[in-house]
From TrEMBL:
Residues engaged in binding Mg(2+): D15, D109
Reported cofactor(s): Mg(2+)
Cofactor note: Binds 2 magnesium ions per subunit.
Species in which this protein is naturally found: Rudanella paleaurantiibacter
GO molecular function, one term: magnesium ion binding
Species lineage: Bacteria, Pseudomonadati, Bacteroidota, Cytophagia, Cytophagales
Protein name as it appears in the record: DNA polymerase IV
Amino acid sequence: MPAPSSPIRKIIHIDMDAFYASVEQRDNPELRGKPVAVGGSRARGVVAAASYEARTFGVRSAMASVTAIRKCPDLIFVKPRFEVYKAVSAQIRAVFAEYTHLIEPLSLDEAYLDVTENRAGLASATEIARQIKAKIRETTQLTASAGVSYNKFLAKLASDHRKPDGLFVIKPADGPRFVESLPVGTFHGIGRVTAGKMNALGIFTGLDLRQQSEEFLTRHFGKAGHHYYHIARGIDERAVNPDRVRKSVGSENTFETDLSTEQALVEGLQPLIDDVWAYCQHRQIGARTVTLKVKYADFQQITRSRTISTVLPDRTTLERICQELLQSILPVTQGVRLLGVSLSTLSDETSTPNRQLTLF
């Protein structure tokens, strides 16, 4: 299988290891080596992040707290400290900036870097990734996993390959072969529902996906079929774009156990609100439209939106609007399997006349 015909890029994907939980274990020695869940509580709520010790029991982010407790009775819950996580994220971003200005953040704890041309003048992207990991550890006392490849899709797969504290390289000649053995559910951008649809069509691995025609994939998956056709061949032409214009920013969770009470739904919204607010703060983006997405147990999906006259002044206002939108669908007659929060009508205006956003 030939490598892509376009000039070979050198892309690194950096993903912090169990970021929120690792920060809590770093700052509280009593938590080190123990199963930790950030968010939720022993009585109710949803896990926002889990330490690797908790993950060995099957505890995962977006899992209901009661389910997490059943899997790990000794699980320790801690309240999230998002201001601390954002400050650490800024330290990590500063390390990236020592090597390249082509940084595309995906969240507080992961980003793509294009180091084809870099400030360190190094020819080896692998060496750059090694140095970045070492500087992150020195600066924050935290570990990161790095994936190095010739495109974004493979770099992200590579960073997941040897977590935690991993460094894995996929060379151009190896990309298609690496993809073919992986389950499609492990591909970034293919969620549980899409993976299930693929499985129903007899597509279980990258090799199965590669054997389908582009026409077949677009017929079953719409425009995304074109993307699936190419990534099955190790091809991804997307550039690392630090200045991409976004029409919206969103975050969503599919829950391990369907949520049915108002309290569980309100708590399930919190990490989503934090995600989108943190992104807007960091990128100095203002937003005027808030959209709540709800998917029920039978996969029926609804959205509720509200647009205000000025940009959102603070997280408290965003949370209030989200809860008011939630109230409009209560009580629920069946369980909720997914919640999403998105912000749109974006601009570079980040303050109201009398209130300035807190940036880090």
